[in-house]
TrEMBL record, chain A:
Ranges annotated as spanning the membrane: 121-142, 166-187, 215-232, 267-288, 331-350
Any one GO molecular function term: metal ion binding
Top-level taxonomic group: Bacteria
Cytochrome b561 bacterial/Ni-hydrogenase domain: residues covered: 159-364
Source organism: Litoreibacter halocynthiae
Protein name as annotated: Formate dehydrogenase gamma subunit
UniProt entry keywords in alphabetical sequence: Cell membrane, Electron transport, Heme, Iron, Membrane, Metal-binding, Signal, Transmembrane, Transmembrane helix, Transport
Annotated family: Belongs to the formate dehydrogenase gamma subunit family.
Subcellular location: Cell membrane
Topology in membrane: Multi-pass membrane protein
Cofactor(s) the protein needs: heme
Pfam families: Ni_hydr_CYTB
TrEMBL record, chain B:
Domain of life assignment: Bacteria
Name assigned to this protein: Uncharacterized protein
Amino acid sequence: MRFMLIVLISVFALLGPVAAQDSAADPRASTGGAQTLEDILARQAGQAMDDSFRSDAIGDPARAASKTDQLGTLGGVSDPELWRALRYGKADITTQSRGPAAKTLIQDGGMWWLEFRQGPLLTYGSYLLGGTLLLLALFYLIRGRIRIDGEKTGRKIERFKAFERFGHWLLASSFLVLGLTGLISLFGRKVMIPTFGHDAFSTIAIGSKWVHNNISWAFIVALVIIFVVWVVHNLPDRTDLNWLAKGGGIFSKGHPPAKKFNAGQKLIFWSVIILGGSISLTGLSLLFPFDLQLFGPTFAKLNAIGAPGWFGMADLSATLSPQEEMQFAQLWHAIVSLVLIAIVFAHIYIGSVGMEGAFDAMGTGQVEEQWAREHHSLWVDEVTAQKPATTTKEA
Amino acid sequence: MKAFLVAIGAAVFITVCANLILKQINFSAEATTASPNARVGTDG
């Protein structure tokens, strides 16, 4: 009896270290190599993990016993191994449909995109747009309308020629329609379906998509027009520093001197050109799916200069599936558009209710001379010195 | 506001024309992504 007890204690004492060695050597020994509960939880929590134990487990037809042998099989790949090969893009696929994305049958990254698109993108997007409108309303309540300080002269100066105004309004009208139809596409499922129902939303969504896709060309044309016409006047110069330092005179009496465009307007101009250009590029990528690869090559260039490391991140994946390219394009298109819409809200405010006399610049093209002297004094000096007879006239 | 009205007209014109032209030259999103199904052919 004592002997049996000693043997039992010895066996249990030895089992512990042996089991520990096993688990240290193969953490998935308990599941026979399959994923453990920890793996599943880590994946669900979105943690980075080495899942080569799954991606490499796709079978090996070369090792299969011939079907003419005893206990031979019809192949060396089991069903789970085939599904894993499909998931990790390692399966040899032949499809009836053609096209670059036809052979990607399972795409894990799509879930990340879908969750982000349905969650944070909508939440923070609505915060951004709603917050901007709220801030503008508060600003209006605190500051009120920016009036023309001096006495009006009754004389008008031509601020923008007809072609400049045409370019501005072409850009503005197409952008407003693009913004509206884009927001319908982005928020429609969450906001409009509960309100109008599926049938009505279907018609609205199809119409929005057609308009959004086709009016985009008008936006691109207008973007080129305003760039060509106004880029010379929007190059930064010394007066901009002074203008910015004084906050454009928004909260003080008097306005800092400015040329045709002040620093605030230049910021709007370059925001529209850079963000609008970026939106156009990603829009073209979405308009002609899989033709324009933007993000894979960009990520490769960022990796080459070590940009991800500056933020403590690992290298970005430069090898993207066709669907991932589209998903990144969609997210970038939406995020940059939301930012530009917020900026344009501020632009619309200051160009209409926010400032007396500002709308005339784009309405008739003729502005009150006193307004021009207060907001663009250097420009007025320049214009009146060049063409005093034609630029000023009695109203 | 003449420039505004002309711009609105131009936006509509460009929108309609872009759609027609892209469809005409088979360069629409639909045309570039669609492909004949392997099972649907003229030879039956």
